[in-house]
Design goal:
This protein is 46% helix and 7% strand. Helix 3 links the parallel strand 2 and strand 3. A 3-stranded parallel sheet has the order 1-2-3, with helices on both faces.
Length: 164
């Protein structure tokens, strides 16, 4: 009873094409809050030029701000990536996870510069690798509940009467 929720799930990574798609999705609003995560699909080497990552991320936020000037914006960073070896304890994938950490760091720079609050999903799960389902990228229901609770709390705080 507090909010209507709209979800846009996609397989894209930072690009000018994505930013054009985003503009069209936001036209379906209006939206009071945009809580987004952007980063996992850009991990393969060479997919996003290192020098383009921050400008493309900044442009993504600028699309939201231009389409929804009154909306609160919250960014959630990307969760840890595991080796995904079935039957073995969850362990961090050193190559992919280092890319994720770098992308999280660069995106956090952009969010800080643009005044966008950050939900630190990475920190919420790094100590709970046992909640991985056993592949590289996905989590159990218990892990998603942790993330959902964090998102819900930040969204509720952004729509609370005292924040308007």
């Amino acid at each position: 009873g507090k909010a209507n929720v709209d979800v846009w799930i996609h397989p894209h990574y930072q690009s000018t094409a994505l930013n054009k798609l985003l503009a069209g999705v936001l036209d379906q609003g209006p939206y009071d809050v945009v809580h987004f995560n952007m980063g996992l699909h850009g991990w393969p080497k060479g997919r996003i030029d290192e020098k383009s990552f921050e400008p493309l991320t900044r442009a993504f936020v600028e699309v939201i701000k231009s389409k929804l000037p009154k909306a609160k914006i919250i960014w959630a960073n990307t969760t840890p990536v595991m080796l995904g070896e079935k039957g073995k304890p969850a362990q961090i994938d050193p190559e992919i996870n280092s890319t994720i950490l770098n992308h999280n760091r660069m995106a956090a720079n952009v969010m800080t510069e643009m005044g966008v609050p950050i939900n630190d999903f990475y920190s919420l799960l790094i100590g709970k690798l046992d909640l991985s389902i056993g592949d590289k990228f996905h989590w159990t229901g218990a892990a998603y509940k942790i993330l959902a609770d964090a998102a819900t709390t930040s969204i509720n705080m952004s729509i609370a009467p005292s924040s308007r």
